[in-house]
Amino acid sequence: MFSLVMFWIPSNIIWDIFNKIEIQKSKIEVVSIPVEKFTKSRQSNKIYFKFNNHSESIKVSSKRINQFIGKNPNNYIVEIGIKKGIWNYYVVDYLNIKLKN
């Protein structure tokens, strides 16, 4: 256990440093993705969608999710500003929820 912790902590710090450097060099890419569902619970409020054929979710505040609870998620898209890091690791710069046109 000790060796795992001793390896994991430094490697995680190094990963974060290199990823932050790569993200600073990358430009913001804006993607518009259909919303799959909105959820609200005491633990977390989330918006679900598919990105690169993988189910993803983003935590949002109660204030933000309240305006969408009870509405049809198929009528909405989530517009996300992302920056690509290393190994297809993305960081969300901003998030907007919009009605589909």
Show the helix and strand layout.
Blueprint: H1 2-25, E1 29-39, E2 45-51, E3 54-60, H2 62-66, E4 76-84, E5 90-99
Antiparallel strand pairs: 1-2, 1-4, 2-3, 4-5
Which residue ranges are poorly predicted, with pLDDT under 50 across at least 5 consecutive positions? none
Order of helices and strands: HEEEHEE
What's the helical proportion of residues?
A: 25-40%
Spatial strand sequence of the major β-sheet: 3-2-1-4-5
- Distance between termini? 53 Å
Rounded to an integer in angstroms, the radius of gyration calculated over CA atoms is: 17 Å
Quaternary state of this entry equals single chain
Strand content: 35-45%
Short descriptors:
single chain; 101 residues; alpha+beta; 5-stranded antiparallel beta sheet; 2 helices; 5 strands; 29% helix; globular
How is this structure best described in words?
By secondary structure, this protein is an alpha+beta fold. It has helices spanning 2-25, 62-66; strands spanning 29-39, 45-51, 54-60, 76-84, 90-99. It is globular.
In short:
This protein is of the alpha+beta class and 101 residues long. 29% of the residues lie in helices and 44% in strands.
